Amino acid sequence: EVQLVESGGGLVQAGGSLRLSCTASGFDFNNYAMGWLRQAPGKEREGVACFNNAIGTTSYADSVKGRFTISSDKAKNTVYLQMNSLSPEDTAVYYCSRGCQTTTLDLTDAWGQGTQVTVSS
Fold it and tell me: Residue 89 in 3-state DSSP?
């Protein structure tokens, strides 16, 4: 059974930082791209970042480039999202995914339960 368990969300002031973690089980983590998605109230879900474990590449949504960093620890089957310079516009429920979502393509097929990130102004 594929399981993705996120942690690390919370409340932070604008300009602050948070690190999200997602531990995966039930599949060969090394062979999959792993992503972070987010959904704010009243908005569509969007892909935030992607780490391709198979080839070691990363990609980011334009809205988070330069502020967020995705990384992967294959020994721990865990993917991280370091979020810096947070703004209220980053407030959303963040989901870990197996596979990634871009503005034009959704290749996700499993998701965690989500973790709330709230940025106060």
Answer: helix
Instruction: Render 35-67 in DSSP notation, one character per residue.
Output: EEEEE-TTS--EEEEEEETTTTEEEE-TTTTTT
Structure tokens at 19: 């690190």
Predicted confidence (pLDDT) per residue in 96-116, tens digit: 999 999 988 999 999 999 999
d(CA 82, CA 23): 15
pLDDT digit string, tens, across residues 45-58: 999 999 999 999 99
Distances (CA, A) of 79 to 12, 26, 43, 76, 96: 21, 15, 25, 9, 8
